[in-house]
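Worked example 3 (structure in, sequence out).
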């Protein structure tokens, strides 16, 4: 396989190949506006009807494999759906409760679609009819090393219809130990709109664990939200050099946070106030190594790395405040092929600020974090901007440390129903971190396709993306298919990261084949072929990417390298309108 080939989280490639053998989902009558309305009548009953994704033919073999692994295929259970319904038997039915219930159900990763409508049940009385269709629950991924599998992942996104995601992974260690891991996420935990997540990983070098229990501020109709999380890991962070093999430094890092907010006011604009306790502990190894196929190779410490990352430990108490003035618009085919998604029209702002209480540096600093979102438009044209930044202001040195920022400006256009055009600008920056980290073109979400082996890195990155995709005439009623073309251009600035360089503008062009199952499903399977227009010496001539993702949640996926740099607590954890 050429060096430009990369396989990333294929997400059921075999299942996509077997779509022709999968039975179509049961047709449902599209509810009218009259069916959907709530006019203050009393709810007498709530009826929930869940439909499976539909498995027959070759694809039914997935059911057998899942049953053997204990990951049974069952339609989503009513109690899981009830956890996200704002309508209650015996109470008045309002249109806001109905529409928000429908939106919260559509956000769930295990549901492909959801509708909530009312049916008259006598004078001043209505029954609530909830209909959902499941996503295909199988999670499967493979990462290749040459022609041999290096890492395998398999799991289910809806174990036994309980809204439980379980993913198991295994990795070849070669000269090192074998790796394995487990990740579990329970949506609708304890019959409430809570998310409980836990993971544990043993890498060939290092390992880690994480725990999260959260109730984000999903809707303005809620009064309270909370988030608590902790994670610890030990890993080797790569350090890219313009010449020579990549280096790596051992990093031990742990973070924790516990916080809550409460709503103030009601109406079109609501406020939130709260507080959080957060902490971080970082230790970076002094000696760089090369991770070779035969083992670790120690290399001399040079001026770019020597003594640059002293140990850092801090505990803080912070105040949280924010405003939300959002109304949601239901659109189709923005980040998915034909699936509906709800985009926020309006603005949201949240901030977190607090001093250090206990710090290994014996200096007093203030931690600041802000999250800003704005959206404008409708079903045929929509513009959005999102920024999330954080940093520590040191009173003694008057310097900003631990600066991490990421933003995205995007415009979605649908000139005709079958065509979607997306123009976006992704901006990322890091500065004065307590551990070695670089921004590169290699990152799958924030980088530049066609440059998988780029040997330059920096502290700031900008990538402009232009994409157009067009739905194909239905090849089968069981799935959606589309073709696309894209042009991406990116630039790096050196900043203060180790071996940082400022590059010229690099460009890549490519074509895509996309699919979704079931038809109307949110998860998109992509095959991208990218060709670099100004290939660096020794770089790949082309790159082939297989990927699978549901990007219909927040119009934004933070790059993995930026997410790794964050302190672990952010206002977006509490004020997210998505359960993830």
């Amino acid at each position: 396989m050429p060096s430009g080939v990369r396989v990333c989280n294929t997400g059921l490639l075999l299942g996509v190949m077997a779509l022709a053998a999968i039975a179509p989902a049961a047709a449902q009558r599209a509810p009218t506006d009259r069916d959907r309305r709530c006019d203050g009548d009393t709810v007498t009953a709530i009826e929930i009807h869940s439909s499976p994704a539909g498995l027959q033919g070759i694809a039914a073999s997935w059911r057998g494999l899942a049953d053997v692994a204990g990951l049974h295929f069952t339609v989503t259970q009513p109690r899981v759906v009830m956890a996200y319904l704002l309508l209650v038997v015996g109470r008045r039915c309002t249109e806001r409760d109905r529409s928000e219930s429908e939106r919260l159900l559509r956000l769930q990763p295990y549901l492909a679609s959801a509708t909530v409508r009312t049916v008259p049940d006598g004078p001043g009385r209505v029954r609530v009819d909830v209909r959902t269709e499941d996503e295909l629950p199988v999670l499967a991924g493979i990462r290749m090393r040459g022609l041999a599998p290096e890492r395998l992942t398999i799991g289910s996104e809806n174990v036994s219809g309980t809204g439980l995601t379980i993913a198991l992974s295994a990795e070849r260690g070669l000269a090192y130990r074998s790796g394995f891991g487990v990740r579990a996420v329970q949506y609708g935990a304890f019959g409430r709109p809570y998310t409980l997540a836990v993971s544990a990983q043993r890498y060939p070098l290092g390992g880690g664990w994480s725990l999260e229990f959260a109730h984000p501020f999903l809707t303005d109709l809620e009064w309270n939200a909370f988030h608590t999380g902790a994670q610890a890991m030990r890993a080797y962070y790569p350090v890219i050099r313009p010449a020579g093999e990549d280096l790596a430094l051992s990093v031990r890092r742990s973070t924790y946070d516990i916080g809550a907010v409460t709503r103030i006011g009601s109406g079109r604009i609501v406020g939130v106030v709260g507080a959080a306790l957060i902490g971080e502990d970082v230790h970076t190894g002094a000696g760089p190594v090369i991770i070779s196929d035969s083992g670790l190779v120690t290399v001399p410490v040079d001026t770019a790395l020597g003594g640059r990352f002293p140990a850092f430990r801090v505990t803080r108490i912070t105040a949280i405040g924010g405003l939300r003035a959002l109304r949601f618009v239901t659109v189709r085919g923005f980040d998915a092929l034909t699936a509906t998604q709800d985009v926020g029209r309006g603005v949201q702002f949240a901030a977190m600020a607090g001093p250090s209480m206990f710090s290994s540096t014996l200096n007093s600093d203030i931690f600041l974090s802000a999250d800003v979102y704005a959206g404008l438009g409708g079903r045929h044209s929509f513009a959005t901007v999102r920024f999330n930044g954080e940093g520590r202001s040191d009173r003694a040195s008057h310097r900003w440390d631990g600066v991490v920022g990421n933003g995205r400006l995007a415009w979605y256009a649908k000139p005709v129903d079958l065509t979607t055009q997306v123009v976006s600008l992704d901006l990322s920056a890091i500065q004065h971190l307590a551990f070695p980290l670089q921004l590169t073109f290699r990152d799958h979400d924030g980088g530049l396709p066609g440059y998988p082996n780029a040997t330059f890195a920096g502290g700031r990155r900008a990538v402009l993306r232009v994409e157009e995709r067009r739905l194909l005439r239905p090849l089968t009623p069981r799935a959606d298919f589309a073709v696309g073309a894209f042009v991406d251009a990116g630039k790096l600035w050196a900043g203060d990261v180790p071996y940082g360089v400022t590059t010229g503008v690099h460009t890549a062009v490519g074509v895509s084949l996309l699919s979704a199952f079931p038809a109307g499903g949110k998860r998109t399977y992509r095959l991208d072929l990218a060709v670099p227009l100004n290939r660096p010496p020794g770089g790949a001539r082309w790159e082939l990417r297989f990927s699978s993702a549901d990007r219909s949640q927040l119009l934004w996926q933070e790059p993995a390298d930026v997410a790794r740099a964050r302190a672990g607590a952010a206002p977006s954890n509490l004020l997210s309108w998505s359960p993830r």
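Notes: The mean pLDDT is 85. Residues 177 and 438 are 27 Å apart (CA to CA).
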